[in-house]
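Below is how a single chain appears once it has passed through the pipeline. First comes the sequence as given, then the structure the pipeline wrote out for it. We keep one example in the README because the format questions we get most often are answered faster by looking than by reading.
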Amino acid sequence: MKVKIGKFPTRLMCNIHSNFMNKKYEYNWPDEMLWDHEDFVIQAINDGIQNVYDMFNWIWFDRRKQKVSIRIDKHDTWSMDHTLAPIILPMLKQLKETNHGYPALLGEKEWDDIMDEMIWAFEQKCRDDWEGDYYEYREMGPEESKDPDSLFGLKLVWEDREGQAAHQERMTNGFKLFGEYYENLWD
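Resulting structure:
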C-alpha cells in the first residue's frame, strides 16, 4: 500500500480587520460592540481587498483539487482490519489531541469518552496478542505427552473466556462507534 494525500488547496483571505480588532480588544471582542469610525474604515478596506482576493481565488485557487495518490496491493486486503488499524489509530489520537469541537448532539465529556473508546479499540486491534491476556499455556512434562488436548507440546493451565468475550465486545463497540461517528471525525 502506498498512500499520498496532499494538503487541501488554500484560498487568499484578508485579515486586516480581524487583526486590527484583536489588537484593539486583545482578542476579547465585546459581545455588543459600538463600532467607531476607525472600525468602519478598516472593515471597508478589508472588504475591498477581500473582493480582489475573491476574484483571484475564483480564477486560480477554486479550480485546484487536493492531490490524492493511492496504490493498494493484494496483500493489503487480506486482513484489511489489521492493515487499516495502524493508520487509523494515530489519526484518532491526533484528532483527540487537537480537536476544537464535538458533534452537536453530544457534550464535550461524552465526545471525549467516545474518542477514548475508539482509540482503545484500535490499540487493541494493533496488538496481535491481546487474546493472550486471557489464557496461559505451559510446556507438558514427559508423562503428559499423550494428552489429546495438548497443543504442540503445550498444555492449557488457565483460561478466562468471559474476560476474553468482554474484551472483544468492548472492541466491537469501539468499532461501531467509529462507524457511527465517522462523519464527525474532523477538526
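The chain has two domains: 1-71, 78-187.

See the next section for the split statistics.
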